[in-house]
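Risk register update: the risk of archive-format incompatibility is retired. Evidence:
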Amino acid sequence: MKDIGVPLIIAFFGAAIAAFWPWIQSLQRGRRFQRIIRRELEEIGPRPEAPVEDKPWWDHATRRFIHEELFHRQSISQNRDFLLSLDPTLIYQVSQLWIALEKRDGRQWLHFLSALARNRRVGSPGLRDAHKKWETIIGAQRAEWLTTMGTPTAFRQGAVLARVPPLFDRRFVAYGRLLALTDVGSAAQPRELDLPERSELADGLMAWYYEQGAGLLLSGRAFAQFQRVQDALLAQYTEPAALQLEFSRLRTDLKIDLGVRQVQERDVAIGWPEEERW
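Archived output:
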């Protein structure tokens, strides 16, 4: 019996290990991924950390994370089994956090940051500090920037993508004409324009705006900056350096529209090399 019992015990434990091995591996992967989430959420603080005029809160969320990619709506079905191995509360809070960013819902973003900061699995001093910084950013936002924009339907997303090539071509041509009107010197040597010269330049900008509907190609951000340039030109007096700065910001917004600059590069003097963007 002893000779028979030992092999039976070994066989039993071997079968048990084989049966539970996938579950053990899944548990280990889940714990490792949970540690990744905790580590990444420590770096979710806003950049820059202080509110910036005319910069919506979502433009402060410049960092991208590994776990964020897995929680994207188009990725959830592919990673369903893995995500279901995690703590249900954690899955819910993290997924809702990134949905809030996608929908531009500042109140929900702050709410789920607070919930995750209190979550015993991923909460940390770094995340709690990031939450406090986000409270400052959200508290300084315009009311319209805190209202959810919703998630575009698949039809609407497809329509936007279908317009991308012709929109880029039209912007490239129209912005090329506008660029010639924005030369008011450099930051080191701004041109000083008298009132008649500034008035003539303002008229030239408005002529461009209405020519062949060029103004309709401006994004909301670029249009707002276009108006600030007009205001600076038509003011009784504007310092040459201040006027040059407004034109510089307009050129940057045009580049953002064309996709050759990123939103987070708006206050960067020289754009980042392509290989450093990702």
